[in-house]
Every structure is written in C-alpha cells, then in structure tokens.
C-alpha cells in the first residue's frame, strides 16, 4: 500500500531552570524548530500470523525519509518491533497502527465508541475510536483520541487526536488527519513536540498480489 503523506513537525524547548544570563525567576523559551515534508509511506504486508500483520514500512519524504523497517501490527493497533532495528518515525507508527486488523470490529453503528488499551515494555496507551458516519460498505468515518506514556531513556507523555476515512471491506485507512503532541523533560529543559500528519491511500498494491 502506498500512501501520499504531508508531515509537519515542530519542537520547542522551555527551560524552566534558570539558564546562564537569564534573570532570576525567568523562563527561557527557545524558538521552535520545524520541518515540513511531503512524500510517500509504503506499507508492504509480507505476512499474517495469529491475527497480526507483518509489514515492511518505508518513508520517502525529504528530511523525514527512513529506511525500511519490519514491524508486526497487532489486532488492536499495537506495534511489535523485530530485534536489531530502530523504531518507526512518529508518522510511520501512526499510519501503521491504523492497519490493525481488529481496528473497527464488527456490528458497529453510528455513535458507537470502543477503546484499546495498549501495553508493551516502556510504553502504555489508551486509544478510543468513535464511528461518526457510515457512507457505504467500503467507506466509514471515524474519530479517535489517545493518551500515552513512554518510560525509560526517552520518557515522555502525550496525546493524539485524529479523523480517519476507513474501508471496512479492505481493512485499510483511505485518508486521515492526525495531530500528535509529545512532552518530555531532561535536566530542567521541557520539550514539546508537535506532529501534524495527513495522508491519502494512493494505491493498494495488495490487489496486485
């Protein structure tokens, strides 16, 4: 599956501890650093096992480009990484999680909501979806919100909100708009990182296999 993506990332540091040269009691905010990229994310499904998808994910989007990584997408949207490889970029992870085979479930009606509670080493999240519109058997609209906590060397907390047009027959997102906010702290410096992602399915390469 090939997705056309637009990605915007903005990070800003806020030094609550007094830096050298600052007046007592003053906070020091550093100007935000930002990156905007347009390109593609390709998700090749290479296997299915016990309700999970084994997917090769590759991003080609300017400064956000990333080499292919293989990840297992669990039925609830959780991601399991293979040993000896890095993690996905934020936008890759958000998109890959929407490939979850059990994302929509069965017998949903407009107004229904359902929650996934994800847990893995150093990571936990609660993600709630809502069915907002049924257009056809191949097109429904969803919204979702998520809160997450990451522990360990890259400890952080954050929230994610988004809207998705989803194909229940193909089990694939057709397009989405997602906003993700991550907050972290290191030695008195607080960092807020904002991700804005929108994507559209350009080609479902599964149909050719």
The H/E string reads: EEEEEEHEEEEEE
The helix count comes to 1
User: Strand content of the residues, in percent?
Assistant: over 45%
> Main beta sheet, described?
12 strands, antiparallel
The oligomerization state is: single chain
Give the class from helix and strand content and strand pairing.
mainly beta
pLDDT < 50 stretches: 17-27
Task: Describe the protein.
The protein is mainly β. Helix content is 4%, strand content 62%. Strands 1, 2, 3, 4, 5, 6, 7, 8, 9, 10, 11 and 12 form a 12-stranded antiparallel β-sheet that branches. The termini are close together.
What attributes does this structure have?
single chain; 209 residues; 12-stranded antiparallel sheet; 4% helix; 62% strand
Secondary-structure topology with pairs:
Layout: E1 2-15, E2 28-29, E3 33-49, E4 52-60, E5 66-73, E6 79-81, H1 90-97, E7 113-120, E8 123-136, E9 139-150, E10 156-167, E11 172-186, E12 189-203
Antiparallel strand pairs: 1-2, 1-3, 1-12, 3-4, 4-5, 5-6, 7-8, 8-9, 9-10, 10-11, 11-12
Summarize the structure in short:
With 209 residues, the chain is mostly beta strands.
